Structure formats: C-alpha cells, structure tokens
Amino acid sequence: MPTPSFDVRIWAVRNRNGRKTAEVRWRVGAEEFGSTHANKTMADGRRAELKAAINRGEPFDAESGLPMSEVRAIEAARTEVTWYAHARDFIEMKWPRSSAKRRMGLVVGLSTATVALTAKDARGPDPTQLYQVLYLWGFNVHRWKEEPPAQAREMLAWIEANSLPVRSLEKADSVRAVLGAMSVRLDGKRAAASTFINKRAVFRTAVGYAIEKERLDRNPLDKVSWERDDDDNQVEPACVVNPTQAHALLARVYAQGRRGRHLAAFFGCIYFAGMRCAEVVKLRADQCTLPKHGWGELRPCKSGPRVGTAWTDSGDAHDDRGLKSRARSASRSIPIPPELVAMLRWHVYRYGTAPDGRLFRSAVGGLVQDKAYRLEWARAREQVLTPVQVASPLAKRPYDLRHACVSLWLNSGVAPTEVARRAGQSVDVLLKVYAKCIDGTVKQDNDRITATLNAWKTPKS
Question: Above 90 in pLDDT, residue 44?
C-alpha cells in the first residue's frame, strides 16, 4: 500500500560524470530517489513536474518516491489491463521476430493460459471451444484483419468481458490454475512433460513482459511451488534401428517405384548425415560436395518445416528459416560417407534439380510434402520389419533415422562435441536426448561387461 508523505525535498539537476545524461534527485522522508534522462532539458522538465506536485500540496509515496497522482494512475492502468488484452499485446510484440513454428508454440501457450484466466461461469462457453477460438482468431496476428464467424465473434467478446486482470496473478491460486491447465490436454488426460514445459516457458515470458510494462511488480511464478515432471523428450532405444535394418529400409524405399526412388536419397541424408527432415527439404546442389571417391560434405543453411499457411508471412505451408538455434545465414558442415555420396550423385544424375537448385521436389516442382515421404516410409517398414517390429516404435517416423545416425556416431567413439556440431545441437541436448543404444547391440554390451568382470575375478588356487 502507498504511504503518503509531505516531507519532500528536490535537489538541482546534475550531469552524470561528464556524460550527456542528466539526473534528477529528490527525497521523500528518509529515502532518496532519482531518475536519469537523456539530456538536461528533459531532466529539468521532470524536476518541474515534481515541483508542480509539491506546489499543488500533493503528497508523495514514501515507497516509490512518486507523487500520489502518478501512483494512482499506475494502479489504475494495472486494474484496467486484462490478461487477454495483455496476451494480445505480448503476441503482437513477439510475432515479427518469431519463426512460424515459434508463433504456433506461443499461441498454444497463451490460449491455454487465457482460458484458465477467465471468470468461472457455468453458463459460459465450453473451455475447449474457447481454446479453439483463441488459437484460430484471438492470437493469430495474421487473422486480426479478417472478420471472424459470428460464433467466434461472440466467444471473443465473452473472453474480453470475462478475462481476469493481469494483477490477479498476484494470487497464487491464479498461477496454479494456469499451471494446472497446462499439465492436461484438452481431453483431460495428462499432457506430455515436454508440452507442459513449453507452455510454461511461454507463460513465464508473457509474465516477464507484464513486469516490463509495469502491470506486475514481480514474477508470481517464483512464489508457487510446482512439482516438475521429468522431461520426456528423450529418444527411446526401441525406436533406433541398427545399420543392417537401416540399409534394408533404404533399399526397400528405392524399390517402391518412381516416388520411392526419388526419396531414397532423401532418407539417406537423414540416416547418414543426421539431418532434420525440414533441412533435407531445402538442401540444394550447390551445398553438396560429391567426389567420385571417398567422403563428401553437405553444408545446409536453410530449413523448411511445415507449419501451415496461417503462421507464415508468405502464406506458404512451409516456413523459410535458417537452421535451428543458429543465425539465419549460418550453415553447418557435415562430412558424409561414400554410401551417401553415391546415392546423391545418382540422384542428381537421374532427376537433376529444381530451378532454385533443390535436390528434392514434388511432382509439380514444389517442396517435398511430409505426407508423401511418410507414406513411402510406412510402406517400407511394413515390407522390411516383422509384424512385431512394425507394431513397435522401431523407426516409426523418418525422423528416427536421425536418432539412429547420432547414436551410431556416439557408439562409434566420435567425440560428443563433434557429434553435436554435425547434428546441429548443443552438447548438453545431445547427451540428454540422443545418447542412446543402437537396437541389437545389447548382447555386445553384455559381453563387454562380462569380460571386464571376469578380468577382476580372483584366480582359484
């Protein structure tokens, strides 16, 4: 609560150590306060405002040092800003500098938090419908200029009228309501730990923006104890194929007709070079060094994840962005073995490139669609793997070839720092996520352990 005081003294403006900036200093009670300004003229203006408050007979707040009229104005601003209005300010600020996939993640987190921070009304819309209208219309900046359907307009108006103020987060119960909503899916089942962690990160960043905008004094998340779930974003050994299985799957893809032959090298880039699917989609011929003999090199510098037309600036389904966790213009050097060199040389000889130099393209020349390569991969699994393996997580997704590649590098004795560089990951993430065993090497590992134990046995006399 503000503490009014008439014991106020204001000193003359002073320059700071020869700099152009100027400082206003004043005292309220026993506490001193100050504000720094770009130049002396601005500082004189602020000093004049403070002097005017004294001349009006206005008390100052002993805690903040501000005239009580300014304190009341700040409190009123805090009271007026609802969480929904703040969340829209936040997403509008983040949108221009965020990738399409990041935008989607921000909207997912904000939609969950906003539904949790609405007044509870048994007659209100269903929470699932509220989430959907926020996801589609409330926080998608690209669609703010469009006219939502009538039902969506009604729900957005209801959210505006019933959204709790940002300051409601000062109560621990409100924070717990948000975290609780983030820990479950829309169907009420427990959410994956990674989903909760990602949503909570968005919420924390939005709360930080509220502090920056002076809508909150401190981060309310810091005073709420919440049991942290273990991160489930780890590769299970059961999904990692061994080299024999990988070669058999790649050979089968090649044998599956025209589209399969075109995509065989696509999957080869994932398995032999550890590339992400979205990176292979954008790989160009001028980024490949493919000698007749020996090792080659790939230098990807673009990524094209499919996120949907609603999230990209271009309106394309695929985003056009740099490599993950790197500067937009940065590239990554990946040495590739002769097997992949041969696959790519044949691919270029047989299919050429797209007009922009891309190695892989759809039938009409566009980007390779994830639906197409997933279908070819599913067909190959059914032909190569046993029924039990087909029903298991073993190489269930094309992305699992990347896990197999990185696991193979690690198990081959390649230094983790070099593996992380080739894979485009930090060493911490690499060791946490990718350091897994290759399927089918358990017996070899057991034999090594047995040999070590036998070496330490005491000889019988």
Answer: yes
